[in-house]
Amino acid sequence: RGKIQLKRIENPVHRQVTFCKRRTGLLKKAKELSVLCDAEIGVVIFSPQGKLFELATKGTMEGMIDKYMKCTGGRRGSSSATFTAQEQLQPPN
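and the corresponding structure tokens:
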């Protein structure tokens, strides 16, 4: 396999086909990671047309978002929400 250049696909039909294939692959990898590592994973994808695709491997997406909000203290856009198991068990200050 050769490397592909990462740039927008101009042909709308090719772009849609690529979106569908890569979306399926991403969701498959998320499920595999969840099973192999017993990880709780949530994925949210919006298509270019605005259609929602989501995956919550344990429970619901709403529960996943609640857990995220609790871990980040309700801060939005926190890209570094990495905590140790001990930090997650401590009550918030």
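(Above: one complete record from the training split.) The two ends are 51 Å apart (CA to CA).
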